[in-house]
Amino acid sequence: MSFFSEKRSPKGIFTAINSLNKFPQQLLAKLCQDVVDALQYKGSVPQVSHYQSELEKNSIDLGKNEVQSTINVLFFLYRDASRVSNLDQKQFLEILQKQTGITNQAGKVLATIWEREKENLPSLSMPNVGKLIDFKWKVGVTFSSSISENLVTPFITVNISVSNTDELVQTHSFEMSVPEFKEFARNLKEINQLLEVI
Amino acid sequence: MELKHFDFFLNSLVKKLYHKDKSITNEYLQEGVIDSQLGSDQVISLVDTLEPILLQIGHSDLSQNALEKLLEPLELRQDFHQHFLKFWEQQRDEIRSIVRNELIFNDRLSGVSWRVDMKTNSKKISNINQPIAIVELLLSRNQQEREDTKSIMFEIDKTQISNLVNQIEEIESLLEKGIQQKN
């Protein structure tokens, strides 16, 4: 479902934008930035409780669910926008204004952040995400080298094949030292746990 | 020469030899010990003595005992001798990491990031609302003082990740066995 290119609105977007409209300008800008940072893995997902208390300081009373919906809608909008090629600030704002009940002021805040960050978000565009076709590995122990004599150390070499949307298969190979492998393993196990739970 | 000067030499030379810091020249070292009584000849001589040792202990991942043996013929002052041993104990892990990474000639894994999504668009009804993970691997290669990074992204479902983790566990137990044998 694409909002910016197909103009299809997900359920609940009006209510969420309604809540968003109540944010003071600066706080809204901070929330947008936090969301965009989280999308780039530069920061963690914005905390509902934090934003709730900031709103309270400004005498704005929004419930947990309402604040959560504003966070969700921003994630949705920025992710969706990053999948549309060449969406400029003006188009971003226009579509937002036509499709939702966003105020001028709030719309401008979202669009300004979009303009600033849109170059940093391209890796989220879906066409570049392939499917994992094959995963091969080997463990070798390097027992000598021109650089070091006695460094007897294992290296893990991985060969992964990924098919992209055009069905072309690309194979990539990389090596990891033991600590790097441990980090890789930790990440994969975390993903596994999450997928099992959902 | 005081202990702080000796420490300065050790730290600077590690920066030069392992962190490839080109600003560490003999002139830089001379300036760093300007409050000592060391002349430029002595600085050069000290560098010529310390560098081969620092290179050897790092590239061969030598133990404390091995370092002791290397230091014996130098007949260093007692506090310098002790300091060197302590210095090596602190630096060893990091230097070992640096040397190991130098041995990866092709692409190395420089970053892993991922997110879990619910599939909402799919031809198959059974796929909708199935969770999938999108993984991004950053591969880097040192090309003539520049680092080239490429990103590979792929999606992976429950079954695939489960298979992957099985293979990961196989590798882990292999490494465990290998380490045990070494010890």
From TrEMBL, chain A:
COMM domain location: 131-198
Transmembrane segments: none
InterPro entries on file: COMM, COMMD4/6/7/8
Source superkingdom: Eukaryota
Family: Belongs to the COMM domain-containing protein 6 family.
Biological classification of the source: Eukaryota, Metamonada, Anaeramoebidae, Anaeramoeba
Protein name: COMM domain-containing protein 6
Pfam families according to UniProt: COMM_domain (PF07258)
From TrEMBL, chain B:
InterPro entries attached to this UniProt entry: COMM, COMMD1_N, Murr1
Pfam families listed in its UniProt record: COMM_domain, COMMD1_N
Sequence ranges assigned to domain COMM in this UniProt record: 108-179
UniProt GO cellular component terms: endosome
GO process terms (BP): copper ion homeostasis; negative regulation of protein localization to cell surface; negative regulation of sodium ion transmembrane transport; positive regulation of protein ubiquitination; regulation of proteasomal ubiquitin-dependent protein catabolic process
Family indicated by similarity: Belongs to the COMM domain-containing protein 1 family.
Protein's name according to its UniProt entry: COMM domain-containing protein 1
